[in-house]
C-alpha cells in the first residue's frame, strides 16, 4: 500500500515539474561582455529576432505580370473586334488604331534614333533616294480642283501611269483604302505634320515603313483616257494647309 502511494506522489511531482518547465520563459543565451562594457561604455545592442525577408511575397502578383495580362487582354479584344461585328468592340479597336496610326510620333522617334545611332529606326528597309532640300510635288501635273473647294486638299491631273513620290521623308502611318480618297498613303514627318496621297492605283509601301524624300509611294492610272487624277493634302496641328502655298505648283488648267 505504501509503495502505491509513493508511486502516485512521484507521478504527480513529475507532472508538476514538466508543467513548470513548459510555462517557464525561454532562457536567453549567455553572451560574454563586450569590449565596450569592460571599459565602462554601454554595450552595442543588436537584434536577435527573426529577420524580415526583403523579397516580395510569392503570393503577391508582380506588376510586370499584371502589365502582360492587360496587354494580352487588349490584344485579344482588338483581334476579336477585327474578325467580328460586335459593336461593343469597335471602340477599343478604333482607339488602338488611332493611337498607332495618328497619335504616336513615329517620324520624331525615327529622327531621334537616327541622330544617335546613325541609321533610321525601321521595320522595312527604306528606299535609297537622294535627299533634296527643296520640296517638289508628288506628281507632275496641273491643279484641277483647288484647295478652296473643300478645304482639305487639291486634285491634280497628271499623265497616265505616273509615279507618285514622297514630298518629304517620313514614316508611313496609313496605307490602304480610304472612304473619300480610295487607295491612300499617309506619311508622318518629323515636325508632326502629315502628307496625304490619294486616288492611287497601286501602293508600293507598307505600314510603318520609313521612306526618304522623292521615294516612290505608288502610281496613278486611268482606264478612261491619257490622264489620271491624283489627290494631295498637307495636315499640320490638326489643320489642313493649302499645298499651293507650301509647294510651288502649276495651277493652270
Automatic annotation (TrEMBL):
SUPFAM superfamilies: Duplicated hybrid motif
Coiled coil: none
Region (Disordered): 1-57
UniProt keyword annotation of Repeat present: no
InterPro entries the UniProt entry points to: Cell_wall_metabolism_enzyme, Dup_hybrid_motif, M23ase_b-sheet_dom
TM segment ranges: 61-80
CDD domains the record matches: M23_peptidase
GO molecular function: metalloendopeptidase activity
Keywords: Membrane, Transmembrane, Transmembrane helix
Superkingdom of this protein's organism: Bacteria
Domain M23ase beta-sheet core, first and last residues per copy: 152-243
Composition skew (Basic residues), residue ranges: 1-20
Annotated protein name in UniProt: Stage IV sporulation protein FA
Amino acid at each position: 500500500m505504501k509503495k502505491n502511494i509513493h508511486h502516485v506522489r512521484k507521478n504527480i511531482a513529475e507532472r508538476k515539474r514538466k508543467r513548470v518547465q513548459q510555462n517557464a520563459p525561454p532562457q536567453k543565451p549567455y553572451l560574454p561582455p563586450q569590449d565596450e562594457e569592460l571599459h565602462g561604455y554601454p554595450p552595442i545592442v543588436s537584434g536577435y529576432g527573426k529577420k524580415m525577408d526583403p523579397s516580395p511575397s510569392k503570393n503577391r502578383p508582380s506588376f510586370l505580370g499584371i502589365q502582360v495580362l492587360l496587354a494580352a487582354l487588349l490584344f485579344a479584344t482588338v483581334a476579336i473586334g477585327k474578325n467580328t461585328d460586335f459593336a461593343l468592340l469597335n471602340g477599343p479597336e478604333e482607339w488602338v488604331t488611332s493611337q498607332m496610326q495618328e497619335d504616336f510620333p513615329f517620324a520624331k522617334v525615327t529622327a531621334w534614333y537616327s541622330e544617335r545611332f546613325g541609321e533610321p529606326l525601321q521595320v522595312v528597309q527604306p528606299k535609297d533616294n537622294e535627299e533634296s532640300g527643296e520640296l517638289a510635288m508628288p506628281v507632275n501635273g496641273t491643279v484641277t480642283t483647288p484647295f478652296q473647294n473643300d478645304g482639305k486638299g487639291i486634285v491634280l491631273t497628271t499623265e497616265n501611269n505616273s509615279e507618285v513620290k514622297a514630298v518629304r521623308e517620313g514614316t508611313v502611318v496609313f496605307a490602304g483604302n480610304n472612304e473619300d480618297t480610295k487607295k491612300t498613303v499617309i506619311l508622318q514627318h518629323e515636325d508632326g505634320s502629315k502628307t496625304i496621297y490619294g486616288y492611287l492605283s497601286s501602293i508600293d509601301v507598307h505600314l510603318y515603313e520609313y521612306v526618304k524624300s522623292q521615294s516612290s509611294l505608288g502610281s496613278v492610272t486611268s482606264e478612261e483616257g491619257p490622264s489620271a487624277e491624283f489627290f494631295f493634302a498637307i495636315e499640320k496641328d490638326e489643320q489642313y494647309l493649302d499645298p499651293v502655298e507650301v509647294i510651288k505648283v502649276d495651277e493652270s488648267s
